[in-house]
Amino acid sequence: GQSLEQPSEVTAVEGAIVQINCTYQTSGFYGLSWYQQHDGGAPTFLSYNALDGLEETGRFSSFLSRSDSYGYLLLQELQMKDSASYFCAVRDSNYQLIWGAGTKLIIKP
Amino acid sequence: SAVISQKPSRDICQRGTSLTIQCQVDSQVTMMFWYRQQPGQSLTLIATANQGSEATYESGFVIDKFPISRPNLTFSTLTVSNMSPEDSSIYLCSAEGPQFGRDTDTQYFGPGTRLTVL
């Protein structure tokens, strides 16, 4: 079967750095995406990695290692507004998005 | 990028009735999708709606229960038929396509429809 694993919940302090990991097992792989969803809101796209390495976009970075079937989302200089759920999603061989269960990020002042 | 709107934003319905959810995209898109999401849980894909062809349903979802229309490249509807309390959920539509430029892997989501079935 196809599966993505990410922690259900992560807690961090405002101003700190947090890493959310995602491991995947899918039939085929085109790329790993990350989405953010605030309570009551819609998922919004954060990043996409098709190749190994680190992609940086402002305070957010995303990393991929295809040989390890592993990626992570790194959030720096955490702000209270970063409190949200973060989903990793993989494009499988059918180019369909397979979603992880989501990680709830709790930020404490 | 794309802006997606959904109507209604929320509704409370009686068991046995049907509700049609509308999804409008501000640009023409190749692929549109319908998801269901329980609060605090992940997204479950119901079906892929392609213009000019039948929708493709995921395992566990059938056309009789969730008929979908895709009359053009900017609009789709999802009907939740013969509803039961188990259908209470948030229903999200999304869109993607190469016309969005470099973000070719991006799915853009509507704000969702919160459905409660009594």
Description:
The complex is a heterodimer of chains A (109) and B (118). Chain A has 109 residues and is an all-beta fold. Helices cover 0% and strands 58% of the residues of chain A. In chain A, strands 2, 4, 5, 9, 10 and 11 form a 6-stranded mixed sheet that branches. A 5-stranded antiparallel sheet of chain A has the order 1-3-8-7-6, with no helix packed on it. Chain A is globular, with a radius of gyration of 13 Å. The model of chain A has no long low-confidence stretch (mean pLDDT 94). Chain B is mainly β and 118 residues long. Helices cover 0% and strands 49% of the residues of chain B. Chain B has no helices and 11 strands. In chain B, the strands form 2 sheets. In chain B, strands 2, 4, 5, 6, 9, 10 and 11 form a 7-stranded mixed sheet that branches. Chain B has a 4-stranded antiparallel sheet with strand order 1-3-8-7, with no helix packed on it. Chain B is globular, with a radius of gyration of 14 Å. The mean pLDDT of chain B is 91. At the A-B interface, strand 4, strand 5 and strand 9 of A face strand 5 and strand 10 of B.
Could you give the topology of this structure?
The complex is a heterodimer of chains A (109) and B (118).
Chain A: E1 3-5, E2 9-13, E3 18-25, E4 31-37, E5 44-49, E6 53-57, E7 60-65, E8 70-75, E9 84-91, E10 97-99, E11 103-108
Parallel strand pairs in A: 2-11
Antiparallel strand pairs in A: 1-3, 3-8, 4-5, 4-9, 6-7, 7-8, 9-10, 9-11
Chain B: E1 4-7, E2 10-13, E3 19-25, E4 31-37, E5 43-50, E6 56-57, E7 68-72, E8 75-80, E9 89-96, E10 108-109, E11 113-117
Parallel strand pairs in B: 2-11
Antiparallel strand pairs in B: 1-3, 3-8, 4-5, 4-9, 5-6, 7-8, 9-10, 9-11
